[in-house]
Specification:
With 229 residues, the chain is α/β, with parallel strands linked by helices. Helices cover 25% and strands 26% of the residues. The termini are far apart. The relative contact order is 0.08. The strands form four sheets. The protein has a four-stranded mixed beta sheet. It has a four-stranded mixed beta sheet with strand order 10-11-12-13. Helix 4 (139-150) links the parallel strand 10 and strand 11. It folds into three domains: 4-49, no CATH class; 56-110, Urease, subunit C, domain 1, CATH 2.30.40; 121-209, Roll (Diaminopimelate Epimerase, Chain A, domain 1). The chain is elongated, with a radius of gyration of 38 Å. The longest helix is centred in the N-terminal third of the chain and has 20 residues, at 30-49.
Length: 229
C-alpha cells in the first residue's frame, strides 16, 4: 500500500492544530518517495555547485605569485580566462577534467604579466650580464672594467657593456677605438652609451662585423671615423 497525504489534528496548547499525515496504500510510503525526491534534488544541486573543470592546468612550473605570504607555487589552473587556482601539483591535477589542457613546463619560470609603458624589461635582464659602465669617471676606468671581464672569458668571446657617458669623464670627448683595442686585442668588444643611441667598439669587433673604411654609414646613423678614415 502507498500513503496519500491527509490532515491529522493534534492537540497543542488546548487547540487543534493540523499536521500532514499519511495513509498507507500499495505497500509504499508517500513520505519515503518525497524523501527520495528531496535526496535527488540535493544531489542535483551538489552537482551544479561542483566547480567546472578548468580549461588549462599548468604543472611542474616555478611560479612567482607576487604574494608575500606564499611567493612560490608549482601549478596553476585557468577557467574562462581567469586564474582559479595557484598551488601544488597534486591539487592542480585533481582539478583536471576531460576537456582540460595540461601543460608540463618542465621547471620553467612563470611570472605575472607586467604592464609598463617604457620598461625595457629585456634590456634590463641583458644589462645584468654585461659590463656595467655606469658611473665611470674616465675612459681609462671604463677600459679597466672591460679588461677585468676579458680575463674571465675565453679569447674571441664577445664582451658587451653599457652605461658610459663621456660627459661624466674628466676629459669630455667621444672615445676612439685605439685605446680600447690596445687594452683588449683578443676579444670583440661592443659598449653601448648610457642612452643606447651610440656604441663604442674595438678593432676586433669591426673585423667581425666586416666594417672597413669603405663601409657606408647605415641608414639613419653614422660611423665616427678618424681623419684617415
Amino acid at each position: 500500500m502507498t500513503r496519500t497525504p491527509q490532515l491529522v489534528y493534534e492537540q497543542l496548547d488546548g487547540r487543534s492544530t493540523p499536521r500532514v499525515g499519511t495513509a498507507r496504500r500499495g505497500g509504499r510510503s508517500f513520505a519515503a518517495i518525497m524523501l527520495l525526491l528531496a535526496g535527488l534534488t540535493v544531489v542535483r544541486l551538489a552537482a551544479q555547485d561542483r566547480p567546472i573543470a578548468p580549461d588549462l592546468v599548468v604543472l611542474n612550473a616555478r611560479i612567482y605569485t607576487a604574494d608575500p605570504g606564499r611567493p612560490r607555487a608549482e601549478a596553476l589552473a585557468v577557467a574562462n580566462g581567469r586564474l582559479v587556482f595557484v598551488g601544488s601539483r597534486l591539487e592542480a591535477e585533481a582539478l583536471v577534467g576531460p576537456g582540460t589542457n595540461v601543460w608540463d613546463l618542465g621547471g620553467a619560470t612563470v611570472i605575472p604579466g607586467m604592464v609598463d609603458a617604457h620598461a625595457h624589461l629585456v634590456s634590463l635582464g641583458t644589462a645584468l650580464r654585461t659590463v656595467d659602465l655606469v658611473g665611470t669617471r674616465s675612459y681609462d676606468e671604463a677600459i679597466a672594467r672591460v679588461v677585468e671581464r676579458a680575463r674571465s672569458v675565453p679569447p674571441g668571446t664577445w664582451i658587451q657593456g653599457r652605461g658610459w657617458d663621456q660627459n661624466d669623464w674628466s676629459v669630455i670627448a667621444m672615445p676612439t677605438l685605439e685605446p680600447l683595442s690596445q687594452a683588449v686585442p683578443n676579444h670583440p668588444v661592443y659598449l653601448t652609451r648610457v642612452d643606447g643611441h651610440a656604441a663604442l667598439v674595438n678593432a676586433m669587433a669591426l673585423q667581425r662585423a666586416g666594417i672597413t673604411r669603405d663601409t657606408p654609414d647605415p641608414a639613419g646613423g653614422s660611423i665616427f671615423r678618424n681623419p684617415d678614415g
